[in-house]
Design brief:
The chain has 16 helices and 17 strands. Helix 5 crosses helix 13, helix 7 crosses helix 12 and helix 9 runs parallel beside helix 10. The chain folds into three domains: 51 residues, no CATH class; 140 residues, Alpha-Beta Complex (Aspartate Aminotransferase, domain 1), CATH 3.90.1150.10; 223 residues, Type I PLP-dependent aspartate aminotransferase-like (Major domain) (Aspartate Aminotransferase, domain 2), CATH 3.40.640.10. The protein has an eight-stranded mixed β-sheet with strand order 5-12-11-10-9-6-7-8, with helices on both faces. With 455 residues, the protein is of the alpha/beta class. The structure holds pyridoxal-5'-phosphate. The site of pyridoxal-5'-phosphate (PLP) has 14 residues, from helix 7. The site of pyridoxal-5'-phosphate has 14 residues, from helix 7.
């Protein structure tokens, strides 16, 4: 692709003004930004972003920063490193044999049909299965016609962005929030209204303010075992949120990929119970069966479903039909609840092990969430010390986590929170890794106190 003769890139300042620069300066800035990103002063990096070295790319893609986690994970792949940084389901629990049997059966009985194009809405028996599960497990009367099969729930989010958001429309988002949603809504050039996530759900006062801002179209939540914090909204908080949003011209998205993975505490009701006319549900088989099938779904009222189907048609015509058939066959031949209980047993044990290790190895000033399900736990360091700086120290001791920074949409300086994943590490490894991380935190706090004797 051709570049402009006069300049090679734009730098966008925090004020939004774009300044053209040449390649030499750009290279210097890139090197400078990289070193700052890791060691020196990240807040300076946050005040400007280098756009693509080509004026042909659309702003919607050039303005979205590179995945911070992916960069961090590059450091964490060395075999010696114990990583709590990932966000994957535990592959040892994938029902490989059962899926192979189901796949053989699909090829044998309906191979030609399974390999053909299909309808946009998704395979009816699969939608009927999902509908039935909502009825029996969650007491929600959801019909198959209100379920659209998507290519993972991430595509569900994309279709919602496409359907609802004009440039500069507002999205209320948890603070901290799911990175995939932050990235997605950024592509639609939405403005974020971050609302503090407390131990029982978002802060109601902040939500009241945010929900009154002009052009607020969506509120995005992960109310069960949230990514990144592991927090679950209480029923009381859900009801209060519904009361704040009721009648306002906005939709609440309840993204629930982890809801089935509860290993302690009591089930909390979906927002569908409290705010049925304004709730859109997102679901997924990624955490309960396998993520590679990329099979998720959206639940929405009729008039929204019509628009979503148009958006989906334009996107990919339909989700992979073979995997939909395979999944439906697997679900018919096997007991999903039984399989989910195996996952819950393992994750529950690992979560408990992590909490016990944290109690033994972390300084008392460190606080953490107590997840009742899901795959993540959230840690807050004392004195506002930087999780990014701790990351450098932890890597030297061969242990990795995700610093909290990328989960915030209004970041001004480095944060003191971090995410730990426990789904993919066994208990012995958790013990070793948390001990190493505890050592890093102790050392950091000692140094910090030496430098800041008044704290
Ligand atoms: C909160 C949340 N929503 C959506 C997704 C995407 O899931 P899927 O694999 O169904 O696209 C994830 C994946 O980790 C997630 O954590």
């Amino acid at each position: 692709m051709r570049m402009s003769k006069k300049f090679d890139a734009f730098v966008t300042w925090a004020s939004g003004i774009k300044v053209p620069i040449n390649k030499k300066i750009l290279d210097q800035m890139a090197a400078w930004s990289q070193s700052m990103n890791v060691k020196v002063n990240r807040s300076a990096l946050l005040s400007w972003r280098v756009l693509e070295v080509n004026t042909m790319f659309a702003d919607r893609i050039s303005d979205v920063p590179k995945s911070f986690i992916r960069e961090i994970l590059k450091v964490a792949i060395s075999p010696n490193i114990i990583s709590f940084a990932g966000g994957l389901p535990n592959r040892e629990l994938f029902p490989v044999q059962e899926l192979q049997t189901a796949s053989n059966s699909v090829f044998e009985h309906s191979g030609h049909e399974a390999l053909q194009y299909s309808n946009t809405e998704g395979y009816l028996p699969l939608r009927e299965f999902i509908s039935q599960r909502y009825k029996t497990i969650k007491g929600l009367n959801i019909e198959p016609k209100n379920i659209l099969i998507t290519t993972g729930s991430q595509q569900g989010l994309d279709l919602l962005g496409k359907t609802f958001l004009n440039e500069k429309d507002r999205v209320i988002i948890e603070k901290p929030g799911y990175l995939g949603a932050i990235q997605l809504f950024s592509i639609y050039k939405a403005r974020f209204s971050p609302v503090l996530l407390e131990n029982d759900g978002v802060n109601i006062q902040e939500l009241m303010v945010a929900s009154k801002l002009r052009n607020t179209k969506l509120m995005y939540t992960v109310p069960n075992f949230q990514n990144p914090t592991g927090i679950t909204y209480t029923n009381e908080k859900r009801e209060q949120i519904a009361n704040v949003l009721r009648g306002k011209p906005l939709m609440l998205i309840e993204d629930d990929p982890y809801g089935d993975l509860r290993y302690s505490g009591t089930h909390q009701s979906s927002f569908m119970h409290y705010l049925p006319e304004q709730t859109i549900l997102l679901g997924s088989f990624s955490k309960t069966v396998v993520p590679s099938f990329r099979t998720g779904w959206i639940v929405a009222p009729d008039e929204i479903m019509e628009k979503l189907i148009v958006a989906k048609q334009a996107s990919d015509l339909h989700t992979n039909f073979f995997t939909q058939k395979l999944l439906a066959e697997y679900l018919q031949q096997n007991d999903l609840n039984e399989h989910i209980s195996k996952i819950k047993t393992v994750y529950g044990r690992q979560c408990l092990a992590m909490i016990e290790c944290i109690k033994r190895h972390f300084p008392k000033e460190v606080t953490y969430t107590l997840p009742e399900g899901g795959m993540f736990l959230w840690v807050t360091l004392p004195y506002g010390i930087s999780a990014m700086d701790l990351f450098q120290k932890a890597i030297e001791k061969d242990v990795a986590f995700v610093p909290g920074d990328p989960f915030y949409t209004d970041l001004k300086e480095s944060v003191s929170t971090l995410r730990l994943n426990f789904s993919c590490v066994d208990e012995a490894t958790i013990e070793k890794g948390i001990a190493r991380l505890g050592e890093s935190i102790h050392e950091y706090i000692t140094e910090y106190k030496q430098k800041n004797p008044t704290v």
